[in-house]
Amino acid sequence: MAEVLSFPGLKGSFAIGLSWQHEEDHPSKGALRARALELGRNIRWCAVHESADGAIQSGYCEAISGAKPAGLKPLAAIVAGQHRQPWMGLFHLRDNLYWYVAVRQGHAVIAGGDRVGTLEEIHPIRERHRALGEWTEIEGTMRDLTAMARASKGVAVMRDALTGPLKSKSYTVAAIAVVMAMTAGGWYWFDQQQEAEREAQLMRQRAVTAAQLANEVARQRAAPWVEDPAPLDFIRACRRAWDRQRLSETGWALSGWRCKPTTSTALTVETTWMRAGGVADNAPGALSADGNLATEAASAPAAFLPSSRALISSVDAQRAMWTYVQVNGMSMQLTMPPALLPTDGKTPVDPWLVMRADIGFGAPPWLGPGDGIGAVDGLRLTEISYEAANQTWKGSAKLYAMRNSAPAPSRSER
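-> structure tokens emitted (414 positions)
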């Protein structure tokens, strides 16, 4: 179901929840009409977008009550080029409603990569997309979308695909008009029109390129780790969720548990259940194909404040991380990001990098293993998990650090 979003301080509105398809070339009005009819009788609004990488897409949705297509821009087309591909984003809209967007080659929105729904509805879609390969995963709120929506220049508004269909007689009239124009010496007017169209197209391309560069520069100045909860705050929130977690449910035993930050006010708690004498009718959540496992996802309240901006060099960050792990007698796998590819010198490079850490806590982190974790600048936990089969507690984290050639934020920015 498509929805309309409006943001304070921004003119116009934005549509989310479109079905996107790849196009080899810019589709004609007739092609858009035919495609809309193929997708279903309620589908009539459409959008056409060409990314800065040259990927052409058409997006479709049903008519949205109370809105007009000429006043809407497709938000997925606007945000697609604002992060390095491939990336997927989950943005909290209100209550238990979220917008999910997924972008891969050519900064194009993939099939199913523009969806509105609850966490339970979006979760299986994200899992299917994760199987496609590595992703940069981003989570945010309406505030983040407001900032991203400002870069809407160069993205065309939507249109009604079912109005003004081309009819065969229009081609005849057009042919006669062309002959008459040629007879009357109308080539000059035609050339002028073509030149004006070429100039307009060039200006649109320049605007898109300028917007993309502006987004890259703004991204350099951004500090995504500030939006993530501080490790100790996240651990405390997960402990409250664990304290409320039931360990069995009518013949089903807790098999796995995962706690993840969703927004500044919510956690996502994913649980796996194993049949322990129970029956399928009593299974909590979605049942597996063999009837012996069930999965469940729920939202839990949280209250996270913005975390510290402070970062240190990648070398110092690795040293601090290993020190924390070794002091607490834990195991860890630390993964460096891929090396930077050669650039043309025009595309800005983030002054920071992200390392991935998989930590073997051995016990719930709130019972001792989390001691000292707050001293590692730039560390942000992304998941705390428990596996009942081997009684293990683990953590996944991002370790942000400055590239060794980049200056670190000053202490006044902490």
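DSSP finds nine helices and 20 strands in the chain.
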